[in-house]
Amino acid sequence: MDNMLSGTKANIALKLFGSDINDLYRIANQIRSEIADIDGIGDLKVEQLVETPELKIKARREMLTRYGIDINSFNKFIKYAIGGQPVSDVYEEEKRFRLY
Fold it and tell me: Are residues 16 and 48 in the same domain?
């Protein structure tokens, strides 16, 4: 349960938040070196996170309005453009595969 709530199996975890992942890693290591000598601390580690690519799409509502496109249609288009939409199923022996 703790792992689901905090994202770690540790009993005590320090979490840092910010926009520069490399800067956060450097600060985390500084904190680690500062608290390493405290009695009772064992198995102290810093987890290195990797940057995950992110695509941000912001609707330009005035342009959508100009072309008569409502926001729901725009969102549906983006959903299908990125994730696809199944159009059929393909069956091979007992296996079923979605066809996009």
Answer: yes
Q: Is the pTM of this model over 0.70?
A: no
Number of domains observed in the structure of the chain: 2
The C-alpha angle with vertex 1 and arms to 5 and 35, in degrees rounded to 5, equals: 60
SS3 53: coil
- Cβ neighbours for 4, distance < 8 A, ≥ 6 positions apart: none
Per residue in 5-57, pLDDT (tens digit) is 556 677 778 888 888 888 999 999 999 999 888 888 878 888 877 777 888 99
Residues 13 and 38 both lie in one domain: yes
